Predict the structure.
Amino acid sequence: MTYNFSTKCIYGNNDATSCDKSGAISFPIYQTATFAHPGVGNSTGYDYSRLQNPTREQLEKVVCSLENGYDALAFSSGMAALTALMELFSPGDHIISGNDLYGGSIRLFNNINNKNLLKFDFIDTSKEDIEKYITPSTKAIYVETPTNPMMNVTDISKVAAIAKKYNILFIVDNTFLSPYFQNPIDLGADIVVHSGTKFLGGHNDTLAGFIVVNNEELSEKLRFILKTVGSGLAPFDSWLILRGIKTLAIRMERQQQNAIAIAQWLKANSKVKNVYYPGLPDHPGYEISKNQSRGFGSMLTFEVENSEIALHILSSVKLIQFAESLGGVETLITYPMTQTHADVPKDVREKNGITDNILRLSIGIEDVNDLINDLSQAL
Ligand SMILES: *Cc1c(COP(=O)(O)O)cnc(C)c1O
């Protein structure tokens, strides 16, 4: 059975009645480390929760259905998912990566993967000629789109065609738009990763991460890595994310509606120099976004005149909270310079326009007038 998106958020592609013999409407939390075998050589399908647990499996099925993948694997955080993903590669392998990434991903590539002799080129995949960077040892292209925090948009189908031509993996971090607005596998990506902590969970209460793949071979390799390194998502956390996803569709709609109103309000404010939101028609990624995504999301970055104003806003907001993370029902404001991007090398930060004049907003589901009033008094 295949259902439409909002239905899949609740059931995946399973029949509603198939989830549990007791008739439980909410999928049970199987809080067990291990499973009894019916006999020698027999298994219920579950052996030990590091390998698989029914609650995690249900969550994986739902996420897999949302991304139209072949398989989805749930990890204890987005970074745990990325760390496991990088185990696909061997010393000497070269990866072409976007340059305006989540700070933690850059820290992983530059400090852990680099130490294990993976080599990276960081480029602007929204603009630069990717083929120029391909060498015989290139094994993957890794992009976030829209990027964090500058909201640059990469043409997913275009990059997918290059990856196919050279027979290399194409990986998309789809955290910012969530599967509600964008499905990279449908556009030719091989692997999608998510920080499930963000929109999928949606309530700023649980960490989680996902890898979704488009074929059996990748699924088998990554399942082997997951059971070996042991960073799978725990049963209770799996349940929290399952519960969060049930409202993904309506949260995304409301968050986007609020974000568009706030982007327009900021743009009209004389103290704001620039607004980076792909849903504004003068944003360079507007047309590509309209082609490849079903929406523009609820992340936006804005630039003020100087760092004093930025710091003043951070200390003056009352309803909007000054905190890292994004995608939840609560509107959060971050200062990428000292928070999410503190470990990004200074020259890279400056090249990408991440200065001490920029602030990033993750818009929640509050009443938009209350949010605008708060920004208004802070500005
Ligand atoms: C937060 C985030 C991550 C890391 O996920 P965690 O769940 O915090 O470990 C990776 N990529 C993007 C785009 C993120 O926003």
